[in-house]
Design brief:
The chain has 280 residues and is of the alpha/beta class. The chain has two domains: 172 residues, Rossmann fold (3-Layer(aba) Sandwich), CATH 3.40.50; 94 residues, Pantoate--beta-alanine Ligase, Chain: A,domain 2. 37% of the residues lie in helices and 20% in strands. It has ten helices and nine strands. A six-stranded parallel β-sheet has the order 1-4-3-2-5-6, with helices on both faces. The longest helix is centred in the middle third of the chain and has 16 residues. The radius of gyration is 19 Å and the shape is globular. The N and C termini lie far apart (39 Å). The protein binds adenosine monophosphate (AMP).
Length: 280
């Protein structure tokens, strides 16, 4: 596996790589969820194509009060995990090479980022769009793989690819979970033992909620209020939002008619966990 640090170098290298080029953008601190994306990328690239993973803790998607500084950065471990997954190239730039101090061009998403995580993390998805568009320009991937764990991110990136005509196909991978249902996340390492014990309540709530939808529950407001109560039955859970939205437009639904997305963000202590359930 080649490790490339400089944006100019990856641009030069890409012109010589055999296609398809499949990109997996990450912020590192890799877990089985990330590795599943890399395996999917390997399959899509087949033996001839090229799998590129990127590892960059992107400052423009963190608000000043968020965890940019303490975000885990186990580079040696990450690169050895990627090597084992037969990743071909690891692109791991430093911030100074990705962002000029006097950069003055931004991307602003005005619709899908107004709800859910975007409502509590102002500017977060604009930062995501900026860095992903830079990665697309640098790596010129044929395919890019993203996780459904970050469903809103995926919906926004689909919109960005459509609206800005990026010549890339986005591939979605289902959420990879711990045996007790908790969605894998680099931030799970922040949880205390007690918090970790209660965190699967989000996934459990979605399973019970899905059963209610399947059994014919019609009112979204009723289901949301039921889900909130259920999640709050875990004493350490503090809800940021619980919602039911259309999976493409992310607009709130009043009637529970599939396809629909159940989505939530819940604090356990200082750690904010997100999860979702697509009901088709
Ligand atoms: P991150 O490093 O958190 O920015 O995530 C990098 C990519 O991995 C994103 O496309 C995420 O949606 C995806 N991802 C993170 N956690 C999971 C998971 N538990 N299952 C599937 N994909 C995931």
């Amino acid at each position: 596996m080649r490790i490339v640090r400089e944006p100019l170098k990856i641009q030069k290298l890409v012109s010589k790589l055999s296609r398809p080029v499949v990109l997996v953008p990450t912020m590192g601190a890799l877990h089985e969820g990330h590795l599943a994306l890399v395996r999917r990328a390997r399959k899509l690239a087949r033996t001839k194509g090229t799998v590129i993973a990127s590892l960059f803790v992107n400052p423009t998607q963190f608000a000043p009060n968020e965890d940019l500084e303490r975000y885990p950065r186990p580079f040696e471990r990450d690169s050895s995990l990627l090597r084992k997954e037969t990743c071909d190239v690891l692109f791991a730039p430093v911030t100074a090479d990705m962002y000029y101090p006097d950069r003055s061009i931004s991307l602003i998403e005005t619709r899908l980022s107004q709800v859910m995580c975007g409502a509590s993390r102002h500017g977060h998805f604009d930062g995501v769009c900026l860095v992903v568009s830079k990665l697309f320009n640098l790596v010129q991937p044929d395919i890019a793989v993203f996780g459904e764990k970050d469903f809103q991110q995926l919906a926004i990136l689909r919109r960005m690819v459509r609206d800005l005509n990026f010549p890339v196909v986005l591939e979605a991978h289902p959420t990879v979970r711990e045996p007790d249902g908790l969605a894998m996340s680099s931030r799970n390492s922040y949880l205390t033992k007690q918090e970790r014990g209660q965190a699967p309540i989000i996934h459990q709530t979605f399973s019970l909620a899905e059963a209610k939808v399947r059994a014919g529950m019609a009112s979204s407001a009723k289901l949301i209020s039921w889900m909130k109560q259920k999640i709050q039955s875990a004493p350490l859970a503090k809800i940021d939002y619980v919602t039911v939205v259309d999976p493409t437009s992310l607009e709130p639904l009043t009637q529970l008619k599939p396809p629909l997305l159940l989505a939530a963000a819940v604090f356990f202590g200082k750690t904010r966990l997100i999860d979702n359930r697509l009901i088709q």
